[in-house]
């Protein structure tokens, strides 16, 4: 399975071609849970008017739309205001170079010290709709019942919205959602690790300028997949370029070390760090999931498995015993394992699910029909990336239009392949520049220079794309004087977007609320 390619195509997650314009997709119905108190998106006068005209596509972006709503939570009704709008980024000549689309939710009666969280997805090239409608926003898009495959989307109230303990600002980086540069040439200047981080830090600064009462609030970042990598870079840019000190970061299924995702072919350590996720997914598929068994798989992975992969090819009875143990953990046959000498990551998605079935690296705990059973390798569109999660695009566009009052003819771009293809990682595009990309030193700097800074990392057990073992390794390598009591790893059933499971979404809500406290 082309795991590196798949990661390049996501961030919750995610990347492929831009989603079709909402005009060509039937808008979803909007259902409310019993007792829902949404006001229906009553609009206030636009907060901005007579916006500067820059020419081109960004002139299709309307003025900011502000509306009032009420969310029913376990603690009672939560009145809040919603703003769907844009922030203008300017070049050295003072002219607009891009506009960043964002959606902000603010509790109407905020308590002193209430945090504000700035959230984004990854890719690079993914919009924030995944975290927005999947996890933290006041509305969610459930993938269950009639909408299990995304074909009948209907938004519902989210009683586990993180708005219960933090104001929220969800941001779409340039080239995603409704965020656009004034030209293709200008867009390219945003498609790099450094410029992306600087532009998002500037957008955060601009938002706080317009909402000055939030400046004293604790400021958190939330990022998924590449968005976790991005969050560390943005946090440093906030501090160093904008004079804003972040209080912490929550990372969902993050990329932390490029070498464990993009350069893992034949790397014993990368294979060992992925192995527990393979075992967890096999246990999930067999209906035998047990965290203690996963811990046992971790011990095997970091001892006998790692030592054997790092040594000479196993021979004779030792080889047979080794391959038998791998087969027991992964569901692969010993015959298939033997030619790989134990590096089974590339076999897994095609063969571990059984004849005629494949696995998605985003959630290997479930199997899907193989469109190309005669092929030796996986040729399918990914069942998660190219399947049900695409429904987030039309659902968000309709929600922004009908409930938030943000109306534009522009296509809402859920996933932008062009952004990913042009992305500059560590001074270059693709190849070694991705492999050597890391946030380990960024985390050390943040923990060292901000004594109150804290980090929460959350993973799904069955995510074999950005496996939890890789994040555990990075956290374990931090000096205890920095990490003790200030970093944590939380694990959940499910895959890369584990929050699409109701139980997991509820659990991370509780864990995140405790982390913020």
TrEMBL record:
One of its GO terms (molecular function) is serine-type carboxypeptidase activity. One of its GO terms (biological process) is proteolysis. Residues 32-54 are annotated as: Disordered. It holds the Pfam family Peptidase_S10. InterPro entries: AB_hydrolase_fold (IPR029058), Peptidase_S10 (IPR001563). SUPFAM superfamilies: alpha/beta-Hydrolases. Keywords: Carboxypeptidase, Glycoprotein, Hydrolase, Protease, Signal. Residues 1-20 form the signal peptide. PANTHER family: RETINOID-INDUCIBLE SERINE CARBOXYPEPTIDASE, SERINE PROTEASE FAMILY S10 SERINE CARBOXYPEPTIDASE. This is Carboxypeptidase. It comes from Rhizobium straminoryzae.
